[in-house]
Amino acid sequence: MNEIFKAPEGDFRGHDQQDVWSQTADPELSEVGPGTVCGEYMRRFWMPVAMTDQIGDLPYRIRILGEDLVLFRETGEGRLGLTHLHCAHRNMSLEFGIIEPGGIRCSYHGWKYGLDGTIKETPCEPVASQVKKKACLGAYPVIEYKGLAFAYMGPRDQQPPFPVMDTFDEDGDEMLPSLIKSPCNWLQVMENAWDPFHVVYLHTLAARVQFHESFAHMPMIEFHEAKFGEFYTNVRRDGDFVWLRIHDHMMPSFTQNGAHFPVPDRERYFGRCGLTRWVVPIDDTHTQVVTWRHFRDGDDPRGLTDKSQVGFGKTDFYGQDPDRPYEMRQRDPGDYDAWVSQGPKNIHSRENLSFTDRGVAKVRRMLRNEIRSVAAGNPVNHPTDDYDGVLPTYAGDTVLRIPAQEGRDDGAVLKEISFAVAGIFKDGDEQPIETRKQYIIDALKAYEASWA
Amino acid sequence: MNEIFKAPEGDFRGHDQQDVWSQTADPELSEVGPGTVCGEYMRRFWMPVAMTDQIGDLPYRIRILGEDLVLFRETGEGRLGLTHLHCAHRNMSLEFGIIEPGGIRCSYHGWKYGLDGTIKETPCEPVASQVKKKACLGAYPVIEYKGLAFAYMGPRDQQPPFPVMDTFDEDGDEMLPSLIKSPCNWLQVMENAWDPFHVVYLHTLAARVQFHESFAHMPMIEFHEAKFGEFYTNVRRDGDFVWLRIHDHMMPSFTQNGAHFPVPDRERYFGRCGLTRWVVPIDDTHTQVVTWRHFRDGDDPRGLTDKSQVGFGKTDFYGQDPDRPYEMRQRDPGDYDAWVSQGPKNIHSRENLSFTDRGVAKVRRMLRNEIRSVAAGNPVNHPTDDYDGVLPTYAGDTVLRIPAQEGRDDGAVLKEISFAVAGIFKDGDEQPIETRKQYIIDALKAYEASWA
Amino acid sequence: MNEIFKAPEGDFRGHDQQDVWSQTADPELSEVGPGTVCGEYMRRFWMPVAMTDQIGDLPYRIRILGEDLVLFRETGEGRLGLTHLHCAHRNMSLEFGIIEPGGIRCSYHGWKYGLDGTIKETPCEPVASQVKKKACLGAYPVIEYKGLAFAYMGPRDQQPPFPVMDTFDEDGDEMLPSLIKSPCNWLQVMENAWDPFHVVYLHTLAARVQFHESFAHMPMIEFHEAKFGEFYTNVRRDGDFVWLRIHDHMMPSFTQNGAHFPVPDRERYFGRCGLTRWVVPIDDTHTQVVTWRHFRDGDDPRGLTDKSQVGFGKTDFYGQDPDRPYEMRQRDPGDYDAWVSQGPKNIHSRENLSFTDRGVAKVRRMLRNEIRSVAAGNPVNHPTDDYDGVLPTYAGDTVLRIPAQEGRDDGAVLKEISFAVAGIFKDGDEQPIETRKQYIIDALKAYEASWA
Known about the structure:
The structure is a homotrimer of 452-residue chains. Chain A is an alpha+beta fold and 452 residues long. Chain A has 2 domains: 46-158, 3-layer Sandwich (Rieske Iron-sulfur Protein), CATH 2.102.10; 166-380 and 390-449, Naphthalene 1,2-dioxygenase Alpha Subunit, Chain A, domain 1 (Alpha-Beta Complex). Helices cover 21% and strands 24% of the residues of chain A. The first copy, chain A, is built from 10 helices and 19 strands. In chain A, the strands form 4 sheets. In chain A, strands 12, 13, 14, 15, 16, 17, 18 and 19 form an 8-stranded antiparallel sheet that branches. The first copy, chain A, has a 4-stranded antiparallel sheet with strand order 2-3-4-9, with no helix packed on it. The N and C termini of chain A lie far apart (73 Å).
């Protein structure tokens, strides 16, 4: 009997590590409500707040950055309005409001608001009433494009132009919107996209190959700066091919990544992104991931995409939503399970960041600097400050036939290629938008040929 | 592409109005728990706490003014008892207690309490035990009438007589009780009854005619004082008829209104109320509306009443409960949707009160004065201080044939009629209760004739 | 009408007793999270954390003492591991981890932990990485026995040997584990076992005889000290028989009681316990009762046991779980209803402890002393300090044929017998474990004979 009851040997430190339970999240980076420093910073940008197919003939109640709002399509020209939820008169919710041409009317006493929240009518008030001039309803401008509604919720005098990317309107590219909610803080969802190493385990070695077996190999990652923001090159060798996946980042939470179901078995020059993505805080502990999936001929040689699965609450690649049984989530966890299970607000002080977390550390540093700069009264630098028209971005897959070089360390070769390709992309910024794509393709081919 | 991405023009002030999100409810008027100033004030009155058809042979757990209580019918004479939920011995809930003649017994160790919370037996204690004398259970007196149980939860030395209204026992009037809960603060539910203007939009123009198409016309409202409290006259002209609806208010939350489905197409003299109503706080963010619906021959010429729909959680007029699909509530909102959607506790500092909110402003002012008076140690003035017997009230519909007067502004005419009719009602207070009704009817007819 | 509306007479003190609503629980005795004084004290003991039949081939998430943990069976030798829930790298939950020989691996980036939380592998990190040495995961040692997993969550230098009781491995005794959760603080669940008087009402007189009709008679209770902790003798006379039920207590929350369905109709010498039981805090307001039910020939002459009902979330005696309709719980309340309905955290300041609450008062006093002693830096006295091997315990039923003595007060007789039997049990501690049982039986028989 004694052997059974013998305590196991080992360096058990649960009690020594007890302070993990009293540590808390970093409010500077995680709190997004009105009046918070991070929230004020986030409010300097256009953000997608809803899928427009969710807006019917009734007001649509949403929550963004901790604010309860109502989104509606006025019945005149069909423009979208986005206002504070509660009527400025006596606070009845405008989700019960009456949509009219040019605005929305509260059903309690009939106050009517224009799209900008100006009070248009107060029908039960005396004619001489001045309340229309003294009061107003909080409202935000909305831009609608390809199934998404974007809003700017910051100070009016700091409203930037809408940043239009080169990936928003390309011939042969069908874009389908998607919006999926996660019950956790925005930052941990966003960081997942700055962490190119999690594909090795989470998406490949942990349970099964969720995307492509090449993801089991450790990539070489190099971070680079671009005019629109940051990007990284993610390089792997596959036989004679060097496969570069380029990932765009634009603060605060915009990312574009390569194709979802690529096969690096042939040359590919400046293939473009499979996903354009914003991570949008609903509030401190809820987040929506809003995306356009791009569908182009040739991006999916294995036929794994499924347009019918892209929409509200769903998408066509694995592990992005909660609609799987708990046991399936345990046996085959996905991105959703990774970020949600970090907790309602990830607690940085109990992490042990390492070499592979360079991207995560970098984005937190950048975010903190930007937040403090805005809090100090400085304007945000927008990429649209430098561009009048369409912004050039880089994300996508490029595959070059450059065999391993005898007598040279292949790691050094791949690193050299990373920087050369990044340079070609950056040179493309100087080209007119009409000829830039061909310029990059030609330059990539010439560079590949230089290794022959 | 540029036109699509151009931000809409307008005076968008969502960010300027951001402080709405940090504003909070007024604790002086909204907090009702034990020890709060509003709660102490509310505890000076008899209030309906339950429908008696919900009390079977088991203890009935309820929550009133933030207190968890148990209501039961003792098995001797069938009297109702109302005590604190937790046994005074070791806190087991008396919802699991044993109902006996004259009281309730805790099932844990058998302590038995009388209706007033006195400990009658402690069967497991030694005979010499003094605990029966030292301890007791909190209990409140209960009065039962026409399907409702009323309790007084205040200090014993300030317990007023039960205020009996003239509308509580009239020949030809069938009264059916109803109790409906709302997940919000009591005050916003109560204020709805002080706001005669919301009928124009909410009940008529917003979605459809919920009661009568005449409600689309703006009423003329005059507030008057009565011995029992306040009342207002709500006057509209319909052809040759002048339709006066009189609404009673008695602090803190008693109201009576006119008929629910009236048709002002003939003379009517001193028609009486369709609803007697108390708004009772469950706690700071939950409220029960407790009513008697009155059914009399002639009150409902269109046959819209439905006695079978009046009861626990329901009534026979639209929009008082949550049991409608969300889309129906959006398309055709009712009173419930108005007050619940103001939020768990309406935030007054983000309202813009106007001319039509005179009643709301008035009741808040009266309430604040009364609360502060009680907090300062003053007694409450009850209408029963002046009356030994039945209290005369006024609510109901009166329709007089008084055509528009050539050469006179009709608004001035209606105002004159309002005050004259209010005067007749107030004169009636001086009459013996047996002859008062006929006195008022005769006086109304004589007044009407004076315009012929 | 006046009689109807007359308030009932009585000494109603609900308002006088209003301060019950502002009283709060005693944090010193009820808060168990990391860093609390009670929590630190509880962490000095081995406690059952789970039923092992709940641990399959996936990580099993549990919560103990306010800590979120994952329990798993490594696939090498099948040992159990218990670690903090969140990976020490980036906080992904290890409920999504990969179980391997000797440990568990996080599925996000593949960090592998040994059973003691040591980092074994960080596959995405460079070979030279030192993070394995600098960081670790909190983990606790686990002992597995007869379907239960026990853990020690305290400081390593204060880890006691596992206390093995004489009741854990007896010939002819089948032991089946059970684990049932209650949504309330641990202390009120534990106290129920220190309160031998509740059987009179709750289990017998309140609704029906849940166990045996003899429980309707008030017992004579005497508390005694033993080497392993405390015990009490619970004595009743049934005709010529004196029925002694002995109940063991070991701090902080271990108890053993007599048979569940006994019939005191014949002699019985040192019958043993029907239940070995630990009350384990999940967190401040959730508790699990973890037991072994003992099944021996002769313990249940009426055939009321049902082994198929003993397991996860259930047991074979009435009233221990919530899986009964609310009306059934009201009509026939059980232990679960008693302790859960005291509230999420029982509030001692609104109790009126009396004679029958001596056990409850005693255990609170002992607990407070122990908590303060540990908080002051003292070690806990464990029964294993004095014993190398199996610990002798006493719980069970003894029935002696000792008729009432003419001319003597029977209460005095029963009290004398209580102390004599307690003395025999304590003398047994000095015997070798092999012969102790027979020693006690013989001594009981000799004592019984001395009364003949």
